[in-house]
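INFO batch 0412 | record 1 of 1 | parsing
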Amino acid sequence: MPRFFPSRLRSARGGASAPLDRSAWLFFWCAFALYFGAVVVRHAWFQTSAWDLGIFDQAVYLIGEGQPPLSSFLGFHILGDHGAVVLYPLGWIDRLLPSVYTLLALQSAALASAVFPLHRLARRRQLGPPATRTSLWVLVLYPVVFNTAIFDFHPETLAFPLVMQAITLLEERRRSADWQLVGCLLLALTCKVSLALLVLGFGGWLLLQGRRWLGWLLCGLGVSWLLLIGGWLIPAFGGEAASLSRHLGKFGLERDAGSADGAGLVVQALGSLVGQLVSGANLVYGVLLLAPVAYLVLHTRRWRLLTGLLPFAPLLLLNLLASQASLKDLVHHYSLFLVPLLAAQVQSSLAPVGPAGVAGYPRWLRPRLLPVVLGWTLLTFVSLSRLSFFLGPFQESLAQAPAMREAMALVRPEASVVATNALAAHLARRPSIDLLRSGTARNLTGVDQVLVDARRGSWKASPKLIRTLLRQLRADPAWSTRFQRDDIWLFERRSAAKSPTMEGSRQQ
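INFO prediction complete | emitting tokens
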């Protein structure tokens, strides 16, 4: 057995626990600095998006101000989006620390804090310090985790450490640990309705293991949450505009006003989309997703290790059925919750004892296993994360950044605003703001100020649309040019002494 795998660890009460605890905190702060530093730079460079950062920043701001979180981007109450009730406590936190950076810091801290349960799991599996540190690096540097950390804000990221904690509790096989696991997954459900599928996956996985009462309990919890949030809360707060049928486009289906909602829509969609399961895009997606842990295929019990990923199967099926590329790539957050399961299986393969541990790797690999795992982790992180974007594409707006900041300083706090995507992400902390798109360009009724970047196209606004709007506003006597430099234009309605509420709800 290699020297870096001690035959046993001292009790958690012994002297060995303190260095390991300090190690976990060091990993947390390193991960937090990496994630938060990167997303702050991206936001400062005007590379974040109103969809989704602006949406959630506006909602949290309104909750903190004691106002109904009616999203002017979406056109309905924020609970009608994904049933993320966790946004309400975030609003209370925002009232104490009112800034978009509060959201970004909370997201970074949540992602980084998953190292703590994984560290405890390593001690339970008797991994030595080098093996423990390697398993933590696998989690921290997984490309999907980093890419999620810098891609705006999503409330489901707050569930990431809860899922990791649930996996840790599963190995304890104590009734009190089982109830703690249920509590963790119940809190995770408050972050997004789709996490009910992950809870269902955990329940089915436990049933296959013979842990029936806990398996059935989690299955019932997942189904109940889907019915409660998807069948009642979302329609109640979002109305017809927030119907689950609005997501059909992600699966290559046309939205039909007469379609069923909730469970009926899910059954209908699954029946229609079975043909999309076998595709080259899904093959590439699977290869890229598992590439950072490709060394697991060298393990003799590779298939048993892969069965540990079964809780993610319902969410994975959803991604595989999708026709929208964002659901099956490493850039977005839709594959995030596979990572805690993968990290746990990697750690299991590093255990010093048992056939499922290090002994399952080829003899030639065992003495150099940890350097190989760590080196491969670093290589895939650099190759598959968007770290390199900070040296190229993310710098495309730097030359205009001073003009953007000067123009935004002229936007009145009470104004109703329409802006291009990157600029709207910085102006969302107000009751009324919307993206520049074809619908808003045609109808600016109730809008006080319009801020656009005319140098390049924006999401939902082509260069042609922007040029047309510029000609329209420059020729309209009701509008005046408040600022113009470096292709950044700020227009203001001449008669707008005070910003009225933007009329009407605008759909995506």
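INFO post-check: Residues 17-391 form one domain.
INFO record closed
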